[in-house]
Amino acid sequence: MDAPSTPPTGRTPDPEAGPDPDAELVCATCGATPAPEQRAAARLTWSRGSDGGRSRWTCDRCSREHLRSIEGKLDPAWW
Question: Which segments carry the region annotation Disordered (predicted)?
Fold first, then answer.
């Protein structure tokens, strides 16, 4: 079995910690990235999901367009 990889920052991911503030924001759906001056605002308006312990970001536009699909993947306990 392979040993878990360590991110380039040298830090070990902590599943209880929030998103890495140094991580690049890239929409997992369309590939959009916010302008450098919009990164802080994007962290408030974009959606973040976790997939295999990794953060996946979805821009606000794609989140709105695919809302029903996102809701359909939620555990029924959320409703």
Answer: 1-23
Domain range summary for the chain, segments of one domain joined by +: 36-78
Closest-CA residue to 24 (of 6, 7, 4): 7
Quote the DSSP letter at residue 27. B
CA–CA dist 49, 58 (Å, integer): 8
Q: What is the pTM of this model?
A: 0.61
**CA 13/CA 29 separation, integer angstroms:** 23
Residues 12-53 pLDDT 10s: 555 555 556 667 899 999 999 999 999 999 999 999 988 888
Q: Tally Cβ neighbours within 10 Å of residue 32.
A: 17
